[in-house]
């Protein structure tokens, strides 16, 4: 099977952009990715574009050029971007196309996500008990996890502080003001134990990737191509309404789409957690990053307390996590968020991440998405 590689990345800044549509942000991101790859829009043979707010994101061709190529809309909650890159890579691997794009864009109103049951497929009782709001859902989830595995509120604050500090070195991030762990802990409680500065916020932005056949990468760019080693998407097996997350090593009876997707991706890539040099994990809140470290096999349950205190997940640590600030620093425009993760990993593997470049020569990067009501996507990249 033909191997797919990433040859171009583009990222529109994340934040608030009054008067600018999601489509226009998406078009800007595509143009940046095309320029990075050294290709033009008419050369693209197909692609996948995702958005929550835009009903027909494939209409972005009106901004880019009416070439007639298939551009398919995709949506999978917060895992949308993982779906877009998986399908763009698969089209190359199967020989359908030689040059594809993955695009994500969104423009969300202010405030926490409150899912419409007719859209999210969640029964009415779920919202009536307050669980539609991300503050409630993730508060309950990390509260149980902290009780079971000895995680402190200080650890959550350290995670948030790290991500804001990383975002300060990212000129395309939304929240670029560093906050100490003490300042995070002093912010108002939204849903115990999570505080104001432990949550991400819905916002606006766009990102895009250009992929091609590995044996043709030299035709387009002098940049080092980044290999797509694995893409995996898994949904829940027992239901959508969990309030705790088990860790990676548990048996097959455990229902965690992240564990399932992670295992599948490692197997597909022929790699293990010990091979990962830099990771981007879904941090809808600080607790999610803690839980997802274990679910993705990067540590055992409860080890996060020590690892984070030791600085293991810092840019200069043993396993840097969310080097661009993650969702906490960048916010979450759903369709674009996961492609932002890929953008950062590509920069890290190229060695072009600037002030936030991790030391040494990273070879393997890992990205993870978790989307309601229970789908996870994992992508593993390497040089």
UniProtKB/TrEMBL annotation:
Pfam families: Thiolase_C_1, Thiolase_N. Keywords: Acyltransferase, Transferase. Its EC number is 2.3.1.-. The keyword Transferase applies. Residues 5-173 form the Thiolase N-terminal domain. CDD domains: SCP-x_thiolase. Residues 253-380 form the Thiolase C-terminal domain. GO terms for molecular function: acyltransferase activity. The keyword Acyltransferase applies. InterPro entries: Thiolase, Thiolase-like, Thiolase_C_2, Thiolase_N. This is Thiolase family protein. It comes from Streptomyces vulcanius.
């Amino acid at each position: 099977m033909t191997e797919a590689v990433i040859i171009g990345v583009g990222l529109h800044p994340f934040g608030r952009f009054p008067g600018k549509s999601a489509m226009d942000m998406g078009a800007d991101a595509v143009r940046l990715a095309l320029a990075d790859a050294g290709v033009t829009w008419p050369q693209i043979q197909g692609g996948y574009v995702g958005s929550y707010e835009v009903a027909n994101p494939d209409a972005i061709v009106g901004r880019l050029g009416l070439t007639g190529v298939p551009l398919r809309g995709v949506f999978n909650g917060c895992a949308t971007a993982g779906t877009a890159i998986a399908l763009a890579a698969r089209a190359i691997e199967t020989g359908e196309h030689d040059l594809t794009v993955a695009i994500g864009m969104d423009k969300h109103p202010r405030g926490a996500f409150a899912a419409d049951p007719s859209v999210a497929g969640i029964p009415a009782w779920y919202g009536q008990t307050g669980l539609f709001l991300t503050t409630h859902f993730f508060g309950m989830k990390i509260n149980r996890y902290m009780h079971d595995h000895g995680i402190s509120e200080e650890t959550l604050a350290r995670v948030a502080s790290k991500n804001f500090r990383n975002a300060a070195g990212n000129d395309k991030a939304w929240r670029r003001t560093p906050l100490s762990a003490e300042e995070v802990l002093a912010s108002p409680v939204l849903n115990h134990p999570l505080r104001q500065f432990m949550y991400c916020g819905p916002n606006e932005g766009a990102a895009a990737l250009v992929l091609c056949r590995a044996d043709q990468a030299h035709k387009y760019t002098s940049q080092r191509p980044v290999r797509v080693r694995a893409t995996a998407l898994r949904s829940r097996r027992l239901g959508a309404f969990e309030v705790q997350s088990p860790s990676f090593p548990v048996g097959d009876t455990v229902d965690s789409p992240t564990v399932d997707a992670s295992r599948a991706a490692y197997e597909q890539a022929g790699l293990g957690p010990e091979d990962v040099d830099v990771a981007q994990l879904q941090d809808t809140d600080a607790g999610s990053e803690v839980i997802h470290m274990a679910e993705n096999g990067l540590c055992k349950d409860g080890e996060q307390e020590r690892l984070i205190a030791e600085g293991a997940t810092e840019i200069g640590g043993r396993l840097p996590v969310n080097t661009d600030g993650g969702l906490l620093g960048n916010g979450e425009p759903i369709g674009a968020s996961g492609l932002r993760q890929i953008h950062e990993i590509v920069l890290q593997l190229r060695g072009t991440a600037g002030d936030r470049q991790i030391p040494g020569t990273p070879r393997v990067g890992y990205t993870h998405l978790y989307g309601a009501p229970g789908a996870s996507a994992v992508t593993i990249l390497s040089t």
